[in-house]
Amino acid sequence: MSEYILEMKNITKTFPGVKALDNVDFRVKKGEIHCLVGENGSGKSTLMKVLSGVYPFGEYSGEIIFDGKPQKFKSINDSERVGIVTIYQELALIPELTIYENIFLGHEIKKGNFIDWNETIVRAKKMLKKVKLDINPTLKVKDLGVGMQQLVEIAKALSKNVKLLILDEPTAALNEDDSENLLKLIKELKEHGVTCILISHKLKEVISVADSITVLRDGKMISSLEVGKDEISENIIIKHMVGREIED
Ligand code: ADP
Ligand code: MG
Fold first, then answer.
1. Per the structure, how many domains does the chain have?
2. Position 248 confidence tier, pLDDT thresholds 50, 70, 90
3. What is the CATH number of the domain that holds 153?
4. 15 in ligand 1 pocket by Cβ < 6 Å?
5. Domain region containing 222
6. Which atom of ligand 1 is nearest to the CA of 40?
7. Residues 9, 25: contact at Cβ < 8 Å?
8. pLDDT at 89 over 90
9. What is the mean pLDDT of residues 135-158?
10. pLDDT 10s digits, 130-143
């Protein structure tokens, strides 16, 4: 078995007039927290959208191997089915629905032809416990702060048996406490075998959680750094991101 849960090889993705990804190689080890960094427009989100099937097979070139198998995802559903779940900065929850409805939206728990709401609430509580949220699942999502909504999204990912959790700038809209809480949770999920790709601009945060760091610049993979093996500092990461030395 490969030590990598994910291997993306020679990924190229173009939009009219833009080469968003240029022959990118990106590999993630099983059970690690892998941070993906780069300046705005460097291709981070596009790479994750290729991975999750937002851009289906045929709309990019290159190869994706997940969990030992070549994959040609045609949709987000395809990638979720094998355990890849992305949480975007714009949360995908429905504010007017309750927490439990949101968690099981699209993969409802059925008894015969009907949704088993009692069981749904019981399981929602279990999922909330896993993300350390001690709140009533019958609350509406709109009544929660952003930090809690983020955790509900992760609870939803866990209810789908996520193997690879992708977080695209999850702390951008969070305050310091909520950010810290989220990073702590990611580390705990890792202990339970969930691999995580974290996109973040906050290099302090990156350095505090990362096992590996991949840097993209202008759609190209510039470097892949491993904690404990490569020398890593904010300055080193910035140098790779912008392609030159930075004055202190
Ligand atoms: P990042 O997430 O690193 O900020 P993106 O992956 O969003 O970067 O974007 C990479 C490049 O691709 C940018 O030049 C961006 O303008 C372009 N791009 C991204 N999405 C689209 C799109 N849907 N249509 C056209 N160009 C896009
Ligand atoms: Mg982005």
1. 1
2. low
3. 3.40.50.300
4. yes
5. 30-64+72-93+146-242
6. 4
7. yes
8. no
9. 95
10. 999 999 999 999 99
Whole-number pLDDT of residue 105: 93
Question: Atom 13 in ligand 1: which residue has the minimum CA distance?
Answer: 41
The tokens 């078995």 sit on which residue?
Answer: 1
Is there a domain that residue 17 lies in?
no
Q: Does 126 reside within a domain?
A: no
**What residues are paired with 69 via a beta bridge?**
66
pTM (2 d.p.)? 0.95
Indicate whether 110 belongs to any domain: no
Taking the CA atoms of residue 10, residue 11, residue 15 and residue 17 in that order, the dihedral angle to the nearest 10 degrees is -20
Cβ 45 under 6 angstroms from ligand 1? yes
ipTM exceeding 0.95? yes
Q: Is there an atom of ligand 1 within 6 Å of 214 CB?
A: no
- How many angstroms separate the Cα of 159 from the Cα of each of 7, 37, 119, 120, 147? 25, 28, 13, 11, 19
Provide the pLDDT for residue 90.
72
Answer yes or no: is 100 within a domain: no
